[in-house]
UniProtKB/TrEMBL annotation:
This is DNA 3'-5' helicase. One of its GO terms (molecular function) is DNA binding. Its EC number is 5.6.2.4. The gene is pcrA. The keyword DNA-binding applies. Residues 292-574 form the UvrD-like helicase C-terminal domain. It comes from Bacteroides stercoris. GO terms for cellular component: cytosol; DNA helicase complex. ATP binds at A27, G28, A29, G30, S31, G32, K33, T34. Pfam families: PcrA_UvrD_tudor, UvrD-helicase, UvrD_C. It is an enzyme of class 5 (isomerase). The keyword Hydrolase applies. Belongs to the helicase family. UvrD subfamily.
Length: 780
């Protein structure tokens, strides 16, 4: 039996070794569910399964990457690389790209993000002459999304009065027509929204039996993490694939189901054994993550929920300290309390900054912590907020990329037809849209031949449209010839975007320019990385596939990252930290005011709180503020009802309000006395004192990749990679330091000249095979 199997307890081992039929691992937080999945995959690989036989679905890209790295360490990078492992959306996107023609799309279809789909809905609502106050685009979007997650098509929607005409729908009788038009318009634009990635996969498998048969026989084993957060569509697709062979293993915890607002259905896990008769159920009871006190506190909290599978969870780690509860007078003071506590723990127990996480219910809460940390020059990283790819200037550039790859993309077209301003007004765009709708063709088709489609425009406008068409057509011609970086920077320059943001030196424009440069850097690195992995040509289309599904939860932790983590509780699912602060424990904030008095919603908020507490390994703290600046005004709040749900034996409650002040006074003196030491420890001696090292992460600049080109337009990907790579002659046994993967040992060198490859075992990134020609490392 392989060594790693010994690293499992009895229950975990039984779950890993059982592979005769469907299995369900249902267990509390920190009990090793994800570990079971990871080890099971390694075990399958060592017992006759090939990497591409295995489909492993995770909740975030980050989780998939971490699992892959872990498996790579056990069975080698090469085998791990070929696993089909990723989020539902990313795996299905890959399948849909390959099978697009079967369902009437081209392989280059665009993925509309939430903002694109909302904008399209807004246009449709307008075109139909409906009142936007009644048909709020956000509400309509949520209803359509809900329908898709329940696999209800526009035709089904029309026939399903009871289920889909609730009160609000009754007030919005046209919603079915909006849905139908929206559906058609997406198809016209060769575009899918996020929900379509699930829905069309289901339809593909339902309507193309030979395709289903192919994937069924390919994916001989299917594994799913965080099954409690799957929705009906995801559950149904897994069933389509697993029904025949029944080699399916899902793991989850009903107590951590926190995505019902996105259609997740806890019943999927509760009724798993009914859907897959003969399922073997494994329960794990030992928590390996947290102290006994944290585990007991979390148990006492979740017991208050009615709807749950009772589970015993215990820890054999230290008893640990009670969970500290802190009261602050204001949100600003809350920030200080947390920061002081972090400083204190670092001094007393030698923790690194990366051992701390501050978790909150809403993104807006991060601001006061940022400010507090900036003042104290503490390094931190925020996950979430406005993602890099949601920024206006980045969306503009990406819209050019999208139109280049898929000229039928309606939302991209509308976004840039007159940006930068080229004198094409709304009237013209409306005429084009109307012609496209009435002839059932895309906006681009009309643009190419406006007269054929009866668009009545003057000569001047016709000329401007023609110029725009030539601009994009020029880019389209280059798609096959140039790599993503070369074409991307060309587009940024020739479209006029860079000139537009360089018009003046206002701080806004400077920051836009920096962001665009950052995007170009990301593209350059993306191409370089793919070259290193042996992909000679990385097209713009490859780049778009890479970025179209990134979300704020996917930002990666750099291996050597010495930063405090700030994130929402939702994003923290599945992660663990030595010390966790759950902040903003107030009524109307946590639980969210949106939960109202609904018992179901309150139970979900309680589960969310359970998720928060169970992220902590050594220490957990809860804080609340008596007053808080929200929605532009001061609000006074009460402590969260959830604080009372935790058995008081596991809490250390605030003695008196004066305590907070004392902590603060102590902080102020600490700040004065230690400032100098702190600054020199962090940055070395410097003139002018500390410089804040804050980083608001652009979560999704292609992951983890280091910046290489200082400013755009000066270097090509190819030239910088060869410069960076240099003469990389290595021998087995040598140690190297790689720009991105860090320290590693050379295991093997194969091939000659341009084809020379080295297999390197990285300390933190597992085994990787790199083409020496492009690899960026130095021998140490
Ligand atoms: P969550 O519900 O939060 O997703 P989980 O059940 O998936 O948690 P894991 O993340 O797999 O739990 O494991 C929690 C921690 O305990 C990890 O650090 C993991 O490495 C460790 N762990 C799990 N099983 C064992 C074991 N048998 N021996 C030692 N450590 C273990
Ligand atoms: Mg897990």
């Amino acid at each position: 039996m392989s060594d790693y199997i010994q690293e499992l307890n009895e229950g975990q081992r039984a779950a890993v070794l059982y592979n005769d039929g469907p299995s369900l691992v249902i267990a509390g937080a920190g009990s090793g569910k994800t570990r079971v999945l990871t080890y099971k995959i390694a075990y399958l690989l060592e017992n006759g399964y090939r990497p591409w036989d295995i489909l492993a679905l995770t909740f975030t890209n980050k989780a998939a990457r971490e699992m892959k790295e872990r498996i790579a360490r056990q069975v080698g990078a090469e085998r791990a690389r070929h696993l089909w492992m990723g989020t539902f959306h990313s795996i299905f996107l890959r399948i849909l790209h390959a099978e697009a023609a079967q369902i009437g799309f081209t392989p280059k279809f665009t993925v509309y993000d939430t903002a694109d789909s909302k904008s399209l809905l807004r246009s449709i609502i307008k075109e139909m002459g409906l009142d936007e106050k009644v048909y709020k685009p956000g509400t309509v979007q949520a209803r359509i999304s809900n329908a898709k997650n329940h696999l209800v098509s526009p035709a089904g929607y029309a026939n399903n009065k009871e289920a889909y005409e609730s009160d609000s729908a009754a007030k919005m009788p046209a919603i079915r027509d909006i849905y139908r038009r929206y559906w058609e318009r997406c198809r016209q634009a060769d575009a899918m929204d996020f929900d379509d990635l699930l829905f069309y996969t289901f339809l593909l498998f339902r309507d193309c039996p030979e395709v289903l048969a192919r994937y069924r026989s390919q994916f001989r084993y299917i594994l799913v993490d965080e099954y409690q957060d799957t929705n009906f569509a995801q559950h149904s697709i897994v069933l389509q694939l697993a029904k025949e062979h029944q080699h399916v293993c899902v793991v989850g915890d009903d107590a951590q189901s926190i995505y019902s607002f996105r259609g997740a259905d806890i019943d999927n896990i509760l009724y798993f054994t009914k859907v897959y008769p003969g399922t073997k159920v494994f329960k794990l009871e030992q928590n390996y993550r947290s102290t006994q006190t944290i585990v007991s506190a979390a148990n006492s909290l979740i017991e208050k929920n009615q709807r749950q599978i009772r589970k015993e969870v215990f820890s054999e780690k230290d008893k640990g300290e009670p969970i500290g509860v802190y009261q602050a007078y204001s949100d600003v003071e809350e920030g200080d309390i947390v920061i002081n506590k972090i400083a204190e723990l670092r001094r007393q127990e030698n923790y690194a900054y990366s051992d701390f996480a501050i978790l909150y219910r809403t993104n807006a809460q991060s601001r006061v912590f940022e400010e507090a940390m900036r003042k104290r020059s503490m390094p931190y990283r925020i996950y979430g907020g406005l993602s890099f790819y949601q920024r206006k200037e980045i969306k503009d550039v990406i819209a050019y990329f999208r139109l280049t790859v898929n000229p039928n993309d309606e939302e991209a077209f509308k976004r840039i037809i007159n940006y930068p301003a080229r004198g094409i007004g709304d009237t013209t765009v409306n005429k084009i849209t109307a012609a496209a709708t009435s002839h059932n063709v895309s906006l681009w088709t009309v643009l190419c031949e406006p007269l054929t489609y009866g668009v009545n425009i003057n000569k001047g406008t016709a000329g401007k449209l023609q110029d725009f068409r030539c601009l994009i057509a020029g880019f389209i011609e280059s798609v096959a010839e140039k790599n993503a970086y070369e074409l991307g920077t060309e587009i940024i320059r020739q479209s006029g975007i860079i000139a537009d943001v360089c018009q003046d030196n206002s701080p806004e424009n400077l920051s836009r320019k920096e962001n665009i440069e950052e995007l170009a850097n990301g593209m350059s690195d993306f191409c370089a990385q793919r070259l290193e992995e042996g992909n000679a040509n990385t097209t713009l289309s490859d780049f778009l596939s890479e970025v179209s599904l990134l979300t704020d939860q996917d930002s990666d932790k750099d291996g050597d990252d010495e930063k405090i983590t700030l994130m929402t509780v939702h994003s923290a699912k599945g992660l663990e930290f030595k010390n966790v602060f759950v902040v903003g424990m107030e009524e109307n904030l946590f639980p969210s005011g949106m939960a109202g008095d609904s018992p179901r919603a309150l139970e979900e908020e309680r589960r969310l709180f359970y998720v928060a507490i169970t992220r902590a390994e050594d220490h957990c703290f809860l804080t609340y503020a008596k007053s808080r600046y929200r929605y532009g005004k001061m609000e006074f709040g009460n402590p969260s009802r959830f604080l009372k749900d935790i058995d008081v034996r596991f809490l250390k409650l605030p003695q008196d309000a004066g305590l907070v002040r004392k902590v603060d006074e102590h902080a102020a003196s600490f700040r004065r006395e230690n400032r100098e030491n702190f600054v020199s420890a962090m940055y070395g001696k410097r003139d002018g004192g500390a410089r804040p090292r804050q980083e608001i992460i652009a979560p999704t600049v292609p992951r983890n990749l280091k910046r290489v080109t200082p400013s755009m337009g000066t270097a090509s990907a190819a030239s910088h990679s060869s410069a960076a790579a240099g003469g990389n002659a290595v021998l087995p046994g040598q140690f190297i330091e790689h720009e991105r993967f860090g320290l590693g040992e050379v295991l093997k060198v194969e091939g000659e000249g341009d084809n020379a490859k080295a297999t390197i075992r990285f300390k933190n990134a597992g085994d990787k095979q790199l083409l020496l020609r492009f690899a960026r490392f130095k021998v140490i």
